[in-house]
Amino acid sequence: MALAIITNRDSNVCRTSPIVISSPVSKHKQLPNEIWLEIFSYATFIPGAFTCNGGSAITSYARDDYGISLHRRFRESMDLKLTICLVCRIWRSLGIEYLFQYLLVTSGDQAVRVAAALEHHNSTSEKAHEPGWWTARLDLALDGTHVWTNKHSRALTYIFRNCQKLAVVSTAFCSPCPRFTQAPSFARAFSELATHQGLRRLELMGSIAFFDAVIPLVSARLEVLWLRPSSPCVADARKRVQKCQFPRLHSFILSSATQASNLLASFEMPFLETLVVQDTEPAELPHVLRGFLERNGHRMRRFVASGWFSAFAELCCSITDYELPSNAVATLSRSGLHSSIKSLTLSGQKDLASLLELVAGDALPTLELVRFLLPFQYRDLATPLAEQFLLMCKRCGICVEISVGGDEQTADVWHCLVMSGDVL
């Protein structure tokens, strides 16, 4: 029996080509500005770039380890924004806020140019708000090989001071081992974030010392936090860090948890709902995460981990969404699985035999959804075992979805997988 894919079930749309907006000048005046702003917002949408609400959008965004999909979408979005501003004077006036909505800085010299552009527009703008007022996201995707000088830090400080509405700040896609984060002037520039009352999401790549200098300034306001420790050193491993309270934080993403055990010991996240742990040493996770989960795991709903460990069953009793590698399915403890789990997301090579046994049993009575993260070129969907699995899921009322390739997986795009002839 053949399998059928029902495309784009999710509301998020991953655009692979720019959207072209065309309208005669004589007609566009008939639409209110608010309608055009909504159209511009939809056309220049970048999945996951601005969201602060947690859930699957954040976990999907975190799959983009190197920012490849994000920055490609940024370039496409910027091309469209620039085109909008060239259509006519009215569109240029409306489009200026989208032009500065997302700033991407890839070098110290570019930080100087961005600061100069903000200063120029501040002095010539005829609108009630200067361009920096509209900036919601600042990305520093810096190459660690270039020299970071005091001039670059002054430019970064100017950007922070003139973009007071920032909701998202990221250095997550800097090159590994960024030495410039150790420069005192770089950390001092980030001290400007203490005045940003609207900051809700922070993504940092760097040393534990850099994290310790920045995070306490904004921890009370953060709702989403992503930390990517750079290569460990003895000083970092032994450094005592400040205790941090996160009264609003609901989503925490941690790359290389084993390199940040001292940070985990100092964090209090009483309302944590989503935890993503990206680690190449899953055998160490039980030891590193146990204390953290004892303090912060009681409210968790969504858990993404690189492997299964028994402490999960013991400490996180409210999980509804669980993501793990497919090869870890065989290690799942039936007695430890929570009956509250409604969604399983599996990455890597599919272990359908173990999954079929799990679904056929009564270990997960509330399971409603099984999702597979598949590579771009997949060929093993229409196997007899896959058909048997789909038939079992149909009997149990379980929906099966797939996300194919990095572009879909980082944009939270899913397709329903059904037996050919089935009607949704």
Structural key phrases:
alpha/beta; 16 helices; globular
The number of distinct β-strands equals 16
CA-based shape: globular
Oligomer: single chain
Name the structural class. Answer: alpha/beta
Folded structure, characterized:
With 424 residues, the protein is an alpha/beta fold. It has 16 helices and 16 strands. The chain starts with a strand and ends in a 5-residue tail after the last strand. It has a 14-stranded mixed sheet. Strands 7-9 form a two-stranded parallel sheet. The longest helix has 20 residues, at 68-87. The model is unreliable at 13-21 (pLDDT under 50). Helix 13 (310-315) links the parallel strand 11 (302-304) and strand 12. Helix 7 packs parallel to helix 8. It is globular. It has helices spanning 25-28, 33-43, 56-61, 68-87, 89-99, 108-124, 150-162, 184-190, 208-218, 234-238, 261-264, 285-296, 310-315, 352-360, 384-396, 405-409; strands at 3-6, 102-105, 137-140, 168-170, 201-206, 224-229, 244-245, 251-255, 267-268, 274-278, 302-304, 321-325, 343-347, 369-374, 399-404, 415-419.
